[in-house]
Amino acid sequence: MPLEGLKGRKALVTGAASGIGDAVSRKLTREGVEVFATDIHAAPGLIVADLTDADDVELLSSRVSQIDFLINVAGGPAAPTRGNTLPPIPGAISLEDLKEKDWHSVIAANLTTAFLVCREFAPRMKARKFGRIVNFASIAARRGSDRVGVHYAAAKGGVIALTKTLALELGPHGITVNAIAPGFIKTTRIEAAGWGDATAAFIDSLPLKRAGKPDDIAGVVAMLCSEAGGYVSGATIDVNGGWYFGP
């Protein structure tokens, strides 16, 4: 049954070349939303943009018509560049081994991207007195992580704070702003990094007894954009199979 309030709307989905971003794009399209998809990595039907670059974000906005939904999926523990759009996902990085360059690049890929895109598109939503913004945090920001490194966890913690503050600022203009904090989601890139082969003991420790799928996340995004999510704002939604139920 289609969700109310989606058909005929327009959305921008970042980080849409694969994985969760691709699943979100497909889900919204199935619900009758016109989707503009962007990524630093070229793929069919995508607008290529480096969202850590304010000039690229401004150029993106000139190519995308008025949007109702902004879905900031772009980010991850590996920071892409124009020369290396699909860098390998690193293993655990300890504090003393973390280089400043990597700190800055991961903060930029996860937090600066969300800031720049929100700054560019929120004024248009304010003018229309309507909008839905969904940012992507991580379970790493909710409980910490010894797998992805302090830079990634800190960046995603910043996304949560950004989301709460924008909810306060933009709420009077009819705009909801929420974050999703995925847990272990089995994507092609995660599998390629060797993280997709989670141990049976880990999977069994999850209350739902299975790894997450990108579609599990896409369904929550669609709900937040629909009329069903119209009174939800400033929230961080944990989608992790019961791994973490934070306060």
Q: Strand percentage, roughly?
A: 5-15%
What string gives the helices and strands in order? EHEEHEHEHHEHHHE
DSSP strand tally: 7
> Mind describing the biggest β-sheet?
7 strands, parallel
Instruction: Record the strand order, biggest sheet.
Output: 3-2-1-4-5-6-7
Notes on the protein architecture:
- With 247 residues, this protein is an alpha/beta fold.
- It is built from eight helices and seven strands; from the N terminus they run βαββαβαβααβαααβ.
- Strands 3-2-1-4-5-6-7 form a seven-stranded parallel beta sheet, with helices on both faces.
- The longest helix is centred in the middle third of the chain and has 29 residues.
- The radius of gyration is 17 Å and the shape is globular.
Supply the key terms:
247 residues; alpha/beta
Summed up:
With 247 residues, this protein is α/β, with parallel strands linked by helices. Helix content is 40%, strand content 14%. The model has no long low-confidence stretch (mean pLDDT 94).
